[in-house]
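Hey there, shall we discuss this one?
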Amino acid sequence: MKKERNNGIRLSDWQKKQLAGEIKAFYLDVRGEEIGMIEEQQLVDLFCEHLAPVVYNKALDDSMHWLKEQLGNMEADYFLLYKN
């Protein structure tokens, strides 16, 4: 039975083309191998399905950490407004 793919992150055609080019350059520069268009697209799909959601969630966690820090600063500033 074929596994149904549900891409975690959707990229525009331009973004996919850019990422495919980066993958192709990586393989050529680092590994000394040339890969074809099918392999490029398979890797783009793999990254979108498995890696991109992890990176996205990490960005959300980092944003939440930053927001909590800013709210903590705001609360401290609020209490500095109190008069003795």
